[in-house]
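>> Question from a student workshop board

For tomorrow's exercise we were told to take the sequence and the ligand below, predict the bound structure, and bring the output to class. My setup keeps failing. Could a helper post the expected result so I can at least see what it should look like? The ligand is glutamine.
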Amino acid sequence: MKPEEKIIDYKSILDNIYSSISQEENKGAIATYIPELAKIESANFGVCLLTRKNEEFGVGNWQVKFSIQSISKVLSLSLAYQIFGDKIWERVDVEPSGTPFNSLVQLESDHGIPRNPFMNSGAMVICDMLVSYYKNPKEDFLSAIRELCHSSEINYSETVAKSEASVGYRNKALCNFIKSFGNIENEPEEVLDFYFHICSIEMSCQELSRVFMFLANPNFTTTKGTKVLSLSQTKRVNAIMQTCGFYDESGEFSFRVGLPGKSGVGGGIVAIYPEKYCITAWSPKLNEKGNSYRGMKFLEEFTTKTEQSIF
Ligand code: GLN
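>> Workshop helper replied:
Here is what the output should look like for this input. Compare the format with yours to find the bug.
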C-alpha cells in the first residue's frame, strides 16, 4: 500500500519564505552583458507553484513577464528529442561540463561535440537540428511552445534578441567553431538568429510553471491533445536538468535544493518535482555563477520547509 500523502500547506510555506527572503539583502548583480537585460528592475521577485493536481499558488511578481534566456534550452531540447529521438545524442553529450555556460574550452578536445545540451554550445547544436527540421523555424517553435503552455500570449522580444545579437561575439565564435567540426549543418547566421530568439522569449513564473508541466505530470497533453515525451524521455530530460541545469553550479543546486531545474540569466529558475509539481522563481540579481541569488535561496528553503525531495 502507498504511504499516506502528507498534507502540505503550500500557500503558507510560500508566503513565509517570500516575506523572510524579501527582508534580507538582495545580493548579486543583474546580467548586463546583454544591454537590454541591464534595464530590468532588480527588486522584482516572484514565485509560482503548480501542482500535478492543478493547484496554483503565486506570490510577488509571479505574473510579470521576463526574459527566460537559457530556460528555453530545456524546451528546445525536449522538442528536438520528440522529433529526432535518440539520434540527438550523436551530436551532443550528456555530461556536466563544470565550466561556465558560454565556455569554448572543451570543444577543441571534444571535436565539436558539446558536453551537454544546456551549455550554449550544446543548445546551438540543438537549435541547428530544429532549424533543419522546421519549415519556418521561429514561427514553428513559437507555435509549439504556445501549444505546450495552452496560451497564445507567448512571444519573442525582438528588442532583446537584437540586443544580444549586437554583442554576441562569443556565441558567434561558438557556433562558427562547432561548424568547423561539421556539427552545425546550417549557416551560423541562421542558427544564431534562431538561438537569440528562443533565448528572448518572455514568460511569467505562472506561464513557465505551466509550460514545464510536461516534465512533472506524465499525463500532460498539449492543446492538440498530444503527449510531449515518453516516460523514459521525460526521465532523461529531468536527469540532464539535475546534472547540468546550473552550469558549474549544478552540484551546488542539487546539494541545496535537491530537484532537477534550469536557470537563465534573466533571473528565472524552473524546478521540477517529477509527478508532483513544477515551481518557478524569478529574481533578476545573479550570483557569480550566473544563477538567480534569491531564486536559488527560495527553492532551497522550499524543499527544506516542505520536507519533500526526490532524494
Ligand atoms: N542568451 C544567453 C547567452 O547566450 C543565455 C545565457 C543564460 O541564460 N545562461 O549568453
